[in-house]
Design goal:
- The protein is of the alpha/beta class.
- The strands form three sheets. A six-stranded mixed sheet has the order 1-6-5-2-3-4, sandwiched between helices.
- Helix 12 packs across helix 16 and helix 15 runs antiparallel to helix 16.
- The longest helix has 17 residues.
- About 2% of the residues have low confidence.
Length: 427
């Protein structure tokens, strides 16, 4: 392993963040002297970022933590209007300006958990590229920026080439995305002295294009790029997704308990790697946890779950989630602190006798959020992995009355597999 002079690159290296780097010696020197001004961009395509975004957020965290420089989180209020084609097989859905703004405001909340914002030299900034992109005049932009971009090079980018090779449509608006992202880098360099862009490996082509555009547009200082791997689990699954959907960072989209459970269910082979990437535990402590084998690996998973949850949701909610899991799974008691959703049972129970479909097992499973649709609920029930009130459900059409709830929680205890439990409370 390369030994750098800066704590920043040493930490990123030993924890397994670095994938591609345009000039490690140059970045190392800037980091050593606290002169990095680094940014990562986040488009506002959903009301929350998901766990797949954590790698770049953690890189910004370590940048500030080690005193290497100033981190910038760039909201894509402008680029979201276009849509990044990277890693996509089809055009992204065009969002309204109101939806983009609402998503942006909700996304912003997570960064204060990882970064310290303010007016100081090393304090983080939060910016929005709509500030300069929304004001662009198309003709002027083509003359001043577009003339520096090579179509030949743009066609060779993976985000474009893969679509063309598969004969999948790539819209003109998407084709312009890399030009806008490259312009972001040049504009940030001129306005804020930004000299490093970080992101996932799928952004490498866009980052390099931004470095080149900055040079061609007369940015006076050297620009650099640094990427991390797009994580997959040891079994090859894409990080950030589960059978129930994305692992969101905002609690409105995913409860702290469900977030804790996601990390608790980490595959054995991933525990050490995820402790390095998604917690701030010292490396010697991580080494001790990684050395645990057999059934003891579950203790390391609990530490991972609690530490990762504490970063996003706070130490109190992480501890509460751990206690709820212990109460529910280790002591065999249904905890009232489990994720709870309400379901309309306002009609009287006579409706059940007439086939009240909203009270079928499949509908209750969908309402719990464990199933994404009624057909998904039927598939899960057919697997034999669904229980309601601790009894296996075999018939998706089984009807439930309001009086069928558990006495302790006054709710239906809906369980899928061993770990996923949600309380559905009839109202």
């Amino acid at each position: 392993m390369t030994n750098f002079r800066s704590d920043f690159l040493n930490i990123l290296t030993e924890r397994g963040f670095i994938h591609q780097c345009s000039d490690s010696a140059g970045i190392d020197e800037l980091a050593r002297t606290g002169k990095i001004v680094a940014y990562t961009g986040y488009d506002c395509t959903a009301p929350s970022l998901h766990v797949g975004h954590l790698l770049s957020i953690m890189m910004l965290h370590w940048l500030q933590k080690t005193g290497a420089g100033k981190p910038i989180s760039l909201m894509g209020g402008g680029t979201t209007r276009v849509g990044d084609p990277s890693g996509r097989d089809e055009t992204r859905r065009i969002l309204t300006l109101e939806t983009i703004e609402d998503n942006k405001n909700q996304i912003k909340t997570v960064f204060s958990k990882f970064l310290s914002f303010g007016d100081g030299k090393a304090d983080a900034l939060m910016l929005d590229n709509a500030e300069w992109l929304a004001k662009l005049n198309y003709i002027d932009f083509l003359r001043d920026v577009g003339r520096h971009m090579s179509v030949n090079r743009m066609l060779s980018m993976d985000s474009v080439k893969l679509r063309l090779d598969r004969e999948q449509e790539l819209s003109f608006i998407e084709f312009n995305y890399m030009l806008l992202q490259a312009y972001d880098y040049a504009e940030l360099a001129r306005r804020y002295g930004t000299n490093l862009q970080m992101g996932g490996s799928d952004q490498w082509g866009n980052i390099v294009t931004g470095i080149d555009l900055g040079r061609r547009m007369g940015v006076p200082h050297q620009l650099y790029g640094l990427t991390c791997n797009l994580l997959t689990t040891a079994s090859g699954a894409k990080m950030g997704k589960t059978a129930a959907g994305a692992v969101w960072l905002n609690e409105d989209q995913l409860s702290a308990y469900d977030y804790w459970q996601f990390w608790r269910n980490t595959e054995d082979a991933d525990v050490a790697r995820f402790l390095k990437l998604f917690t701030t535990l010292p490396m010697d402590e991580i080494a001790k946890l990684a050395a645990l084998g057999g059934a003891e690996i579950n203790e390391a998973k609990k530490v991972l779950a609690t530490e990762a949850t504490a970063l996003v949701h706070g130490r109190d909610k992480a501890a509460a989630a751990a206690e709820t899991a212990k109460t529910t799974f280790e002591q065999g008691v249904t905890s009232k602190d489990l994720p709870t959703v309400e379901m309309d049972f306002s009609a009287d129970d006579e409706g059940v006798e007439q086939g009240w479909t909203e009270r079928r097992a499949e509908a209750i499973l969908k309402k719990s959020g464990i199933a994404s649709s009624l057909s998904d609920a039927r598939r899960k029930i057919a697997e034999g992995a669904v229980k309601i009130n601790d009894e296996q459900v075999k018939d998706p059409g089984k009807l439930f009355r309001k009086s069928d709830v558990e006495i302790e929680t006054r709710a239906f205890k809906v369980q899928y597999g061993k770990k996923r439990i949600v309380l559905v409370k009839p109202v």
